[in-house]
Amino acid sequence: MIKLYVLYAGDIICKDVSQLNEGSLQSGEMALANPIFLIQHPKGSVMWDAGLSDNLINQKEGMDAWIFHLTMSKTVISQLESIGVHPSDVDYFAFSHIHNDHTGNANYFKSAKLIMQEKEYDIAFSPNKRPFNYDDYKELENSEVIKLNGDYDLFGDGTVQFIATPGHTEGHQSLLLKLENTGALLISGDIAYYKENYQNKGIPTFNASKKDSLASIEKIKKMVANNNAQLWIQHDKENFETLKICPNYYD
Ligand SMILES: [Zn+2]
Predict the structure, then answer these.
(1) How far does the centroid of ligand 1 lie from the alpha carbon of residue 6, in Å?
(2) Which residues surround ligand 1, an ion (CB under 5 A)?
(3) At the N or C end, where does the chain have fewer CB atoms within 10 A?
């Protein structure tokens, strides 16, 4: 039986929602969720994203990062502990992409096999191109890695599939899961920030490619329909508030 745990990994306030949706007349603040996920499959465990850094819990007022205000009220490590998981137990670690709200605790998972789209990997570890948050994940530089150039069925049984969805970043990916009781579930990463964003194809102003972003939204819409899947937009606070959080799980 495959289990899926949803872990809280920080709170985000976007102080200028117009930046999340090019051409939008909406302005002002929007609260965003920031969950990460642990999948326990009989053939291995998979961690999806690393959230904001647990260290942020020591900054009571949180911190500003560009248009975002970031806070942390519960650590990732404490949630893993609550279900008896140590980061070194995790077999595979994957980033949707390497923005800092997804990389915070990545160094915990240095002993896992890293799964990334090759384009994202090349930017992440290039001395000339790597982002300011490189320290968050630099210990993964020596990890064994599976570099992807497209979609990938990790265990060959269709239950854990990595879906290439470039646009937000050059090597962004999403995750398609098939659970026995819950059914198909698409965890979309940041192809959109919230539901209206996805429905109206509002592309964030800071995406790497608008064309690829639109194509990825189309790809995910088809995949959601073909698999009769639930769609979980990671940053969508409204969706997050309906989810069971670790130590509860989906199966
Ligand atoms: Zn994000």
Answers:
(1) 16
(2) 101, 190
(3) N
Does residue 246 form part of some domain? no
End-to-end CA distance of the chain: 7
Residue 248 lies in a domain: no
* C-alpha of residue 136 to centroid of ligand 1, in Å: 15
- Which pLDDT tens digit goes with each residue over 177-199? 999 999 999 999 999 999 888 98
Domain that holds residue 38: 3-240
Q: Report the separation in Å between the CA atom of 12 and the middle of ligand 1, taken as the mean of its atom positions.
A: 9
In a domain, 247, yes or no: no
The pLDDT score that the predictor gives to residue 113 is 98
Scored b (16 or more CB within 10 A) or e, 45-84 reads: bbbbbbbbbbebbeeeebeeeebbbbbbebbbeebbeeee
Residue 142 CA, ligand 1 centroid: distance in Å: 25
**Nearest of 242, 243, 226, 238 to residue 195 by alpha carbon:** 238
pTM over 0.85: yes
Centre of ligand 1 to C-alpha 235, Å, is: 7
Question: What is the total count of domains within the chain?
Answer: 1
Which CATH number fits the domain that encloses residue 144? Answer: 3.60.15.10
Residue whose structure tokens are 């490590």 = 77
pLDDT at residue 62 greater than cutoff 90: yes
pLDDT at 200: 85
190 CA distance to ligand 1 middle (Å): 6
* C-alpha 102 – ligand 1 centre gap (Å): 6
